Fold OsmC-like protein.
Amino acid sequence: MVTVRRKELIEVKLDAHCPTMSLTEVRVRGHSLVVDEPPYRHGTDVGPTPLETMLAALMSCTHVIGARIAHERGVAMTFKAMSCTGYLDHRGIDKEADVPVPFPKIEMAITVATDLDAAAFESFKTELEARCPMSVILRQAGTTIEQTWTLA
């Protein structure tokens, strides 16, 4: 019998072209992503900012890992809607103060349809918090992530 060992570390590689002081054109696995700043920060506003992209990654990660956990548990769950608000302490960017946690708080509102009972849903949320890489990274950096879940 052959035993297949999975790699512990999976390589995630991106490349970027930076044509202006704020525009970043990212390529990954044949896909393109444009990240920019608004005009008042010397950008052309052709894409979300780096910080908006980070919050989008948190939302996407929450959705994808949440759906995966539900699938692994054999339960029905459909993510219906999500919103996210990050509270940025801009003083570190502006060199006004030492800011160890640029996003001290992030609020998320998540609406799902599921057949999980209350206890299983709490267990699901705990597992999701531990398995979503973006959530883990942000929490370990000191960010408080407040999630409000609504059942549709």
Summary: The chain is about 30% helix and 30% strand. The chain has two domains: 11-47, 50-151. The helical segments are 50-73, 118-131, 133-140. The longest strand covers residues 77-87.
